[in-house]
Amino acid sequence: MSFEVARRVVEEHAARARAAAIESRSTEAVDLTAARGRVLAEALVADRDFPPFARATRDGYAVRAKDVERVPARLQVVGEIKAGDSAEKIAVGAGQAVSIMTGAPLPSGANTVVMVENTENPHPNAAQNAALGWGTVERSGSANGFVEILRGVISGENFVPRGAEARVGQTLVEAGRRLDHSLIAIAASVGKSRLQVFRRPRVAVLSTGDEVVEIGATPGPSQIRNSNSYSLVAQIEDAGAEAVRLAIAPDEPGRLRELILEGLACDLLLLTGGVSMGKYDLVEQVLSELGAEFCFTGAKIQPGKPVVFGACKVEASGSHPNAAQNAALGWGTHGSDSADISRAGAPALHNRYFFGLPGNPVSTMVTFRLFAQPLLAALSGASPEPLVFLSARLKGDVRTKTGLTRFLPAVISGEFANAEVELAAWQGSGDIAALARANCYLVLPPDRERVAAGEMVSVMAP
Ligand code: AMP
Ligand code: MG
User: For the whole model, what pTM was predicted?
Assistant: First the structure.
């Protein structure tokens, strides 16, 4: 499968998994201060007009447009209105102006605001000042004095009319959005100190390999410390989900099967290693024996070619009702609200997605990013987000073999609109150290043998 087709396959399953996750209504309330990264399970609705009053966007003078059609115009300053004052505090009559501050309500009678920069306040004692060489004007408002309008404005300038941003009752944010700082600001402004969010999916992480040892152990000469479980936990948590790190599975079917079954109790199972063509790559075999259905086994990408995606039916454990995934695959065995209730004595079956990610650390990270992340987002109830590549100018020629879409560790530099990218030195997908030198992936299409320096190329954020 090409990269694009494989990604599409995941996205299709993700769409169904998401619909089912929403249907399951598995939600909880969290404090706004703990809501970052969580997925909204309710819409955020304007509880009043936005802005709730005609709000000045400049410091200046609230006036009637008619009075400033011809400039300069001298208006009588009848008072001042600042942020927090009532709009009824003072009214603007013909030939009058009210000194107004940013954030203040437009006083009645006024229909526009002149910026203070376009005005002058003739000082009451201008003549005396001039005699003393003290200058004749100052820019601060002077109540009951006069203001000189130097530049005309039309009606409706420098304020936002009441309700122009949103009307009371209007949906500001749909359910399904992941809460970032800007959505948190919206929640705060509609007074939501607690929010209904989807429960975080639990993701099991199962690293496999006879050579892989726990990080606390002293590795033998041909052993490798388990880094994949740790990078995956970090990626899972970054994606707003909860990670469950399982023991390392040896390349032996019995124990591997036990740990896979343990992992299938979670909402998603991520395995690493054991999906290549080697004699001891047993992951696919054991999953098949457990009745797994495979959506793909391999994608035309580098790194990450052996990546496997599929789903497995498991018996309900009772602790994690999940009709969601069953429904997503059309395997529904029961109503969505009674996932764990067996019918006619038969145990309810649940559907669990899994990814078999290749064991090479860079492959593990890239395939998580490309495939596991969108499914995980969907299981979180999040609306789909497109995978967007940035554009940068290639610094030096790159040669590759055709046939695979490549995601190669690279360094992006330059700034603003002048991004440049070059490959990081690396020894292939086992080279973790190279990642410390890289800050992005250079994405090369499968049909190019040579990409020349100076060409615009695609770049994926890590
Ligand atoms: P595999 O996909 O099982 O063929 O493994 C490919 C390469 O990744 C081998 O060199 C493994 O030693 C290495 N590897 C597999 N699992 C891990 C892991 N959990 N942490 C670090 N390296 C690993
Ligand atoms: Mg292995």
Answer: 0.88
